[in-house]
Design a protein that fits this description.
Layout (H helix, E strand, L loop, with lengths): L1 E6 L5 H10 L3 E4 H11 L1 H8 L4 E2 L2 E2 L1 H8 L3 H23 L5 E4 L14 E6 L2 H12 L3 H9 L13 E4 L4 H18 L1
């Protein structure tokens, strides 16, 4: 079974993926894949966004993030460069997998949901995500809010989701909800 996990910025996708991995699922972290592809596509990215995105010969993600999260057209251009090879890597990673979990904020937008038998959407209040983003990533409130607003809200994608798990309470409660979903899915296999 291939499970997709999606949701907005700082909603808990990685934490949910880790719980699936503990149950034997192969975890596919699309964000990590994106970081790898970004460095591999460095020349093309620099050609589009300029030398200012480089630091020590590598793409400085934070600098690039400030650019693309402030300009939807530039973000779409970056996605045109990165998404096709990212999708191909996910497809290859799934070859031969019995149970896998794909963790991707843009699971639906990238059509990675077409690889999935079951899709979980993690819902979090914007204010909770802002506080988490500021703490986790050291961003300002405005930078964090721009990242949240750059994504289509999960509420607008619920028609593509099989199960919604809210993550506004405690870590313990969130883990309980995810484990409960894993147990239900295990009975479907």
């Amino acid at each position: 079974m291939v499970v997709g996990i999606t949701g907005g910025y700082c909603c808990g996708k990685s934490a949910a993926r880790a719980l699936f991995e503990q149950e034997g699922y192969i975890g596919i972290d699309v964000d990590r894949i994106g970081h790898e592809v970004l460095q591999e596509k460095k020349d093309e990215v620099v050609e589009v966004f300029g030398e200012g995105v480089l630091s020590g010969g590598r793409i400085e993600r934070r600098t690039l993030g400030r650019i693309v999260f402030a300009d939807a057209q530039k973000r779409r251009r970056l996605e045109e460069i990165l998404h096709p090879p990212m999708i191909e890597r996910v497809r290859r990673a799934l070859d031969g997998c019995r149970n896998a979990v794909i963790d991707a904020a843009l699971l639906i937008e990238m059509d990675l949901s077409s690889f999935c038998d079951f899709v979980i959407g993690i819902l979090v209040d914007d204010e909770v995500a802002i506080l988490r983003g500021m703490e986790r990533d050291g961003l300002s409130r405005d930078e964090t809010l721009r990242r949240i607003l750059s994504q289509i809200p999960l509420k607008e994608k619920l028609f593509c989701v099989d199960k919604v798990i809210e993550n506004n309470a405690t870590v313990r409660e969130f883990r309980r909800r995810v484990r409960e979903t894993i147990s239900v899915l295990a009975k479907k296999e």
